[in-house]
Amino acid sequence: MKMGVDYYPEHWDRSMWEQDAKLMRETGVSLIRVAEFAWSRLEPEEGRYEFGWLDDAIDVFYKYGIQVVIGTPSCTPPNWLVERFPDVLPRDAMLNPRYPGIRGHRCYNSPSMRFFSTKIVEKLASHYASHPAVIGWQIDNEFSLNECHCENCNNRFRDWLSKKYGTLEALNQDWGTVVWSGEYSSWEQITTPFGGTKFRNPSFLLDWKWFETDSVVEFQQSQLSILRKYCPDHFVTHNIWSYPMSLDYYKLCEDLDFASLDYYPGTSPEKSVSGGYNGALTLDLTRGIKRQNFWIMETISGPPGCWFPMWRTPQPGFIRAFAWQCIARGADTLVHFRWRSAPFGAEQFWHGLIDHSNVPGRRFEEYRMLCDEVNRLSPVLAGSEVLGEAAVLHSHDLYNALEIQPQAEGMNYFDNLKLYHRALTKSGILTDVVNTTDDLDKYRLIVAPSLYLLDEKLADKLENCVKNGATLILTNRTGVKNMSNVCWIQPLPGLLAEAAGVTVGEYDPVGNDVHTIRMLDGKTYSCSQWCDILEPAGAETVAWYEDDFYAGKPAVTVHSYGKGKVYYMGIVAEESFYLNLFGKAAEEAGLTRFTGLPEGVQISIRRKGNSKYLFLLNLTQKQQTVELKGTYRSLLQEMSVGPDVILDPYAVEIVELDEQF
């Protein structure tokens, strides 16, 4: 495990480099990331490369034992490139170019952009391949879908579609272009969605999203192949930017050594609790990208603010607590953004560990403490992995399809995924978040939010998991369409109706209207967004509607299938409903549970061989108490703690569990 910072030597006078390197070493920093925005300094004119300043900077940090990750600078094409080759600029849906002045002004399909970006990456890779300080590479910075509509993107989109469908007849059939007289008689008639996407064919729009992802992956691959060639002993990663995101991170990171995340938890005191749960989901999603540990390539050091008003400054303990949250959920290295606040540029007030005063203060001392703890525990925790017993399924395809056609007022795929994950986290259930395409055999509890796009392969996989003893929880809007975004002509939940033992007789997109359901035990819960009116076909009713024309009709069911069970939830309910249902399902499935967690307190377990390490994190501003089942050794305090563990605001505890736990 390593502690690092993002550092920009080109921003500082050379006289400051050694001072910074020395202080970093004293603080416990062993890694810096550099150069991801430095193209104009690395190549000030076409073909004239100036790496001497970066050589000198890296040599200074190497002198103090600090390793280096180099970012390829393709996120920020320099002005000379834009001026001479304007095709590098992406064009919006009205064909207006997006002018430079901010980062990310590049078209992934621009021949000029690809040529010059691979050229500088090749120069950097060959130059730094043997430097002993350089250990790895970050490709570009925070990829997203540019949704460019330039001529190059149009031509490549048509080629992409031609390879996928083979013939126009197949494309017209799969998209259903007969609607609104949209049939194509030549490939040249197909364009990117000029003018925007309102009223567009949903199958066309989903293919457009897939094409955009493939464009990013291909752009990245052009750099990755160079780095693999010249630097076979270096790792290669990319720093993704949070969720939700239309770009398919699973495809993006498939060929990388590991995923990296830029993670900025909200500092507002009134949102710190909810932000902590949202952050837990983001971290679990990142771990699920490659089903392995990951890096944090940027995280909070002070109040962010630039193109928006500044956030509140992190409260005492905040930086440390959320750093440990990252480690608890699978981060192996933490790189804080940034070492020092910038005196110029758009991110002047995206604060670093050291403010513009250049005097280390409270936040810096907290960071120093964090470095000491992580470096001290690194030999123990290195090589450990996060233990998850339940799974929440996630898909960029589902997110995109439901963004293309919102189903009801206030209904959002990712917000509902947050709701389910938050309930599992509060229930103390150890949870992974994984792609719908991943292997699920190890999980005894699987929550599958809105499988709106469903094919035989996924349906069969889920059925087999249930037959072998898993509990599957399905939600409304399951089995609506095939993977081409075309509606199935069969009762919902479509391909999973037999396993669920229920069909949807009718549905009501209630949006923001509030309805009530009643459970078997008489407890009632509010619901909104959606109401499936269910018709059991072997399933038992778990909850009924209390109002509207479907009062008394089933709202939630459970069906025994093979050795397992399938719950079907036709509603989106208040959080307490899921705390009840998920807790019961986890107990029935025999999962490990940590009951009685206070609001805002999270747990996680990292496992290494036969050793297990329990993380307790109080991500709130008030003192909390967690009850353990016994007394355990604290790794942080190097003493025994429990059975009652008192956690001060933003406190962290890590205990080694015994073999019987």
TrEMBL record:
Residues 6-376 form the Glycoside hydrolase family 42 N-terminal domain. It comes from the Bacteria. It is an enzyme of class 3 (hydrolase). Its EC number is 3.2.1.23. Residues 389-591 form the Beta-galactosidase trimerisation domain. GO terms for molecular function: beta-galactosidase activity. It holds the Pfam family Glyco_hydro_42C. SUPFAM superfamilies: (Trans)glycosidases, Class I glutamine amidotransferase-like. The keyword rRNA processing does not apply. Keywords: Glycosidase, Hydrolase, Metal-binding, Zinc. It catalyses: Hydrolysis of terminal non-reducing beta-D-galactose residues in beta-D-galactosides. Residues 600-656 form the Beta-galactosidase C-terminal domain. Coiled coil: none annotated. PANTHER family: BETA-GALACTOSIDASE GANA, BETA-GALACTOSIDASE YESZ. Belongs to the glycosyl hydrolase 42 family. This is Beta-galactosidase. The lineage of its organism: Bacteria, Bacillati, Bacillota, Bacilli, Bacillales.
